[in-house]
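During the reporting period the student researcher (J.K.) took over the structure-prediction task from the postdoctoral fellow and processed the backlog of single-chain submissions. One of the processed entries is reproduced below for the supervisory committee.
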Amino acid sequence: MPFQRSKDELDPDHPNPCYPRACAIQSCLQKSGFDQSRCESLIDDLYRCCAKFYQQRGNDAEADSCPIPTVVQRRIHNMQHDAKRRDGGSLLETKKR
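J.K. obtained the following structure tokens:
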């Protein structure tokens, strides 16, 4: 049986490991009539993925599906602030739906 990574692990050999999350956002937006509020959890998942991507590969790394590191850092900061107010959950874990 081949090794499978959990949803929270990035493939270190893949040039764009967050791409599937970006595709999931696009599908969600199309299905929801482009109502972004209905896809927020997927958008958060992408930013978590991109944060891990930059942690692993450095801020000079590039991936088509990830915004620049400063944008990711700002979003993550805001997500952390919101999580502390809500429930104190771990930021870099993908939320179960």
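The committee noted the following: The radius of gyration is 14 Å.
J.K. will present the remaining backlog at the next meeting.
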